[in-house]
Predict the 3D structure of the following.
Amino acid sequence: MFVSPEDRRIGIVFQDYLLFDHLSVLDNIAFGPSSSGLSKNVARRAAQQWADDLGLGGLEARRPPELSGGQAQRVALARALAAEPALLLLDEPLAALDATTHVHLRRVLGEYLERCPAPRLLITHDPTDAFLLADRIYIIEGGRITQSGGPDEIRRRPATSYAADIAGTNLFGGVCDRGEIAIDTTGFLLHAADTKTSGSVLVTVHPRAVALHPTEPHGSPRNTWLATVEAVEHLGDTTRVLLGGPIRLAADITPGAAAALGLEPGAEIWVAVKATEVGVSAA
């Protein structure tokens, strides 16, 4: 069945925005409501609300060529959402934004998506956007879907090293025998609390489950080893430490702990992981 373009009620944010250069910011945003039959005044009031919500106040009279890339992207997003679409397609809707604006608009978009009954498809290279905004995630590698599932499912059981990387989970292949796992390629042994799974397995260790110590730890952790710091990344209230050694993995610790440990590339550090924090699933 053919539906004319003006009746399709599809909201789209294109990577290159495709704004109407002959219209002002406000009229670009009002285009959708106007096309759906609202009066000009009502459409412009709706457009003004979206302009305010997306931080476009004061830019309403500008034309697209007068906007920065981030401003144009916000106009494109506002235009798509103001139309109250029956289908929403978002292609990298937050990619060109500075960090502060990105966080704010992700929150605005998330609130909209929670109350939006329409089907929506979000394409992004930012795993944080995907895990915070999506109900279901499809991971594409080499042009094919390698895993799909809810955010929590993918965090708990990533199917590939790429999925583990974007989900922030350390992933290893290995062979398990009664809770003792020989990691592929290195033969390094990890101990897991799961003593029932055997054979080829995928092993996951969340970065927050990795503890770092200046000296060899003693006590409950069954997995301890000496590693080398490869990189230290500051991520707001978390510091991610990339570790080399018998196995490569990431650890997430607080900035205060990182400072106290004096971490820097090349430094040696003791690693501890409890057996209960080693996830095991059949490969």
